[in-house]
Amino acid sequence: MKLLEGKKALIFGVANKNSIAWGIAQALHAHGCELGFSYGFQQLERRVRPLAAELGVEFVEECNIEDDDKITAVFQKAADHFGKIDILIHAIAHAKREDLTGTFVDTSRDGFQLAMDVSVYSLVALTRAAVPLMADGGSILSLTYYGAEKAVPHYNVMGVAKAALEASTRYLAADLGPQNIRVNAISAGPIKTLSAAGIAGFRKILKYTEERAPLRRNVTQEEVGKTAIWLCSDLSSGVTGEVVYVDAGYNILGMPEPPEKWL
């Protein structure tokens, strides 16, 4: 049974085949959802269009999410193409590379503002633009990480941005609940993506998580995609304002050390 037959989704943040957003796109497509893609800047087009073609996606538009006029223009095109949308996927995050290598205390003012604008306010801006196209209700989904709750080496300003993203999820869910629009976030474990490559020591984070998570492994794009299907379908019709963990259980640990080392 296809859980999203007849639904239409607009996905922001597909960058290449390693993107978590791509895993979500594949999962939604497999369950009958019609998709539209939006990418952040022109250089990404050559990577995104072949992926769109692979899933038969016809709506592919560039959008600078730091510009409200550009956001308005993309959603007008989406209205013309789809008529309405049921699902909005926000898979956007960015910070200056130098702010993800040193210590948080050395974060620059403009670097802080950039991370918050691109990684957090964009969710608010895209949601505001999407609401008029969700007259029958809908599901809005963003991506976060455990570094929003606990200090993770070199995650720095992005951890603060993700904390703000999670808070924004709750406030948006409270605002839009009366319109039957649900807003949730997936907190995925570390996955090799283009964005993750900018975090100093990311390979060590992957290895550390793999050794200590209860499932003794890292998670995959496909597993995040499966959870996205649940959160975007009627199976989760009573769920909103939540952060759902897909991290092999890592977030439950208070003392993450492999038990076998204690024996």
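the 2nd protein, sequnce then structure:
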Amino acid sequence: MADPTPSAAHWLGTDILGRDILSRLIFGARTVLMVAPLSVAVAMVAGITLGMLAGYFGGWIEALVDRFSDLVLAFPVLILYVILIANVGASVVNIVIATTIASAPGIGRIVRGLVLDLKQQEYVAAARLRAESTFYIIVCELLPNCRGPLLVDACLRIGYTIITIGVLGFLGLGLPPPNPDWGGMVRETTTVINVWPLMSIAPSVAIVSLVLGFNLLADGMREAWKP
């Protein structure tokens, strides 16, 4: 039975369909904590690959990566997400693909800038004198020295992705039912918020808290990686 009043059986009450809000909130957290890091991880792999190739080899490879980055970054990120999700449908796989397409160019530019500086360092010249392969220089010499800024950027991007997933859910483009989507939970209360306030407040607080946590983690890592 639908009851917006918190009780011993339902700590945050129930929604308009009689479902326990706390249970849906916890289950939705599992979905967010799986989708957001997975999306950013795939985007980081794609962006690091593009940035390493562009920064290390330069020439036409760098020009091609730059043109691709300019094309993607010309679109507002949220509009790009909406276009992709609206056309291919909402699912975990499609959200990962959309995040990769939207985030990889920005990550690639960060990596490219780092590599342009790092490849002039003496340890890279020493690796070349030892006749090390290009793969070895990129993976064992350049990539480890990029890890600090990239880990900070990854934490920030997870926060951005959590917000984006919430916005997509609010717009009706989030994960399809019966998955409890925090943004979708907020959207369901737009007409009954005076009666079911916790149904909107609880997922909103969850999104804010999670994003704030990842931002604080990024700040801590930034301080730890300062020279």
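Residues 21-224 form a domain with the MetI-like fold fold (CATH 1.10.3720.10). The CA atoms of residues 176 and 183 lie 12 Å apart.
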